[in-house]
Structures are given as C-alpha cells and as structure tokens.
Amino acid sequence: LTIINTYIPPQSVRPSHFTVSISDLLFNPNTILMGDLNAHDSLWHSNIQDARGEVLAVEIDDSDCGSLNLDSPTRLPNNSQPTSP
C-alpha cells in the first residue's frame, strides 16, 4: 500500500507556468491519495466549484480511483463556509 499526501498551492500564489494535475499519481496500484488540493468540485461534496476542481475531478473520473469523502465538511472555519478537502 502506498499513501501519498500532496499539497497544491492556492491559485493566488502559484507560478504563472503551473498546471494542476494529479493524473500521474492516480495510476499507481494500491495507492491512497490525499491532501490539500486547493480545488473545489462536487465530486468531493464542495458547495463551490472552480476550474481547478473540474480538472482534477475529470482526472479522477478518467482513472480507476474514486473519492471517499462523505457528504459532510471536514473543515469548519469560524469566518467562512465549511469545506471538504
């Protein structure tokens, strides 16, 4: 079993040449991929959607992987809306 924890910086601090992709990580057998992707999509029950999240959701859909998030937030900030990383 391989466990991969990844971080993708927010779009506001990324280099201009940065392209988001996790596809290389999705085709390793017996792998759990988790992390802070700074992306939003309904696949992981986010009530916000953005282009980055859409790209990553398509990559996940095109693989044999899936999302294990439940339909409940895992981050409950005091001053903004809950999220499901």
TrEMBL record:
**MF terms in GO:** catalytic activity
Q: Where is the composition biased (Polar residues)?
A: 69-85
Question: What range(s) does the Endonuclease/exonuclease/phosphatase domain occupy?
Answer: 2-78
Question: Which region ranges are annotated with the description Disordered?
Answer: 66-85
What is this protein's record name?
Answer: Endonuclease/exonuclease/phosphatase domain-containing protein
Species per Swiss-Prot/TrEMBL record: Helobdella robusta
